[in-house]
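In response to the reviewer comment on reproducibility (Comment 2.3), we provide here a single inverse folding case reported in full, input and output, so that an independent group could reproduce the run without further information from us. The structure tokens appear first.
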């Protein structure tokens, strides 16, 4: 009887550990709501919202390749060499440029290393607005990851827009796993 109870306890512990591993693995890349502190306080609400600046003014690579791009510090000074120059946050920008350093922004949106995503394909081919994936950026004082960006979310979006993959995403044209995974 003691051996049976010991085996049962071991089985329950292993099952619990297995369930934990599965839950953790399924949440890879899912940092929905992640809004790290940035080295310079930047309001997307002010710039993209009130001032109606196009996202691609700062994120100039979104229509050109895989990454949208992080703006070089000098870009901020296109306006801020004349506007709000006495602000402590703008002084951080000017000090960075004067020292030859770029501001080290903290990345917000993360895909797992084994997943491939190309901004240009979604901007140019699909014609998606940035808000489709990034949410109402123009309303965000502090930018946060809006969607989970996990595989299920991507597949649902593709299905909703009648783009492969089909119901069985491991079959048929467009369901090739290697299109998104290395």
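Designed residues, in position order:
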């Amino acid at each position: 009887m003691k051996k049976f109870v010991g085996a049962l306890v071991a089985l329950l512990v292993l099952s619990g550990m297995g369930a934990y591993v599965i839950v953790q693995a399924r949440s890879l890349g899912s940092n929905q709501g992640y809004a790290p502190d940035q080295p310079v306080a930047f309001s997307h609400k002010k710039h993209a919202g009130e001032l109606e600046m196009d996202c691609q003014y700062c994120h100039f690579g979104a229509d050109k390749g895989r990454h949208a791009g992080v703006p070089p510090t000098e870009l901020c000074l296109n306006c801020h060499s004349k506007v709000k120059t006495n602000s402590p946050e703008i002084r951080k920008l000017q000090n960075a440029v004067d020292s030859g350093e770029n501001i080290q922004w903290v990345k917000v949106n993360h895909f797992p290393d084994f997943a491939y995503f190309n901004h240009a394909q979604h901007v140019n081919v699909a014609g998606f607005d940035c808000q489709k994936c990034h949410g109402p950026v123009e309303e965000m004082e502090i930018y946060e990851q809006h969607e989970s960006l996990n595989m299920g979310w991507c597949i649902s979006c593709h299905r909703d827009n009648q783009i492969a993959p089909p119901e069985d995403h491991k079959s048929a044209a467009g369901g090739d796993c290697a299109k998104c995974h290395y």
